[in-house]
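Lab manual, section 2.4: Encoding a predicted structure.

Procedure: take the sequence of the chain (89 residues), apply the prediction step described in section 2.3, and record the output as structure tokens. A sample record is shown.
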Amino acid sequence: MKHSKRISENALAISKTKADLQVAADAIKTKSITNQIFNQTTNRLASTETTIKIQAGEIAKRLTSSQVKTVINLKGFQTKSDVDKNIFR
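Recorded output:
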């Protein structure tokens, strides 16, 4: 009787261990997939940040309308509004 009880206990322990291993395997699988998604997202974010920095640099190179007017006035040229004022006086 003791022998069959011991076998039954061992079978139960083995069954529980198998279930625990399956839970661990599933968790590892999920972590692996989650890690892949995270890496893909990180790569997309890095690429987007690079694009934004490049575009910000290009935007920074452009003159504002005030700067354009200043350059025009410094060179002695008239703006459209100056010409319109002279015509419609």
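Check your result against the sample. The mean pLDDT is 87.
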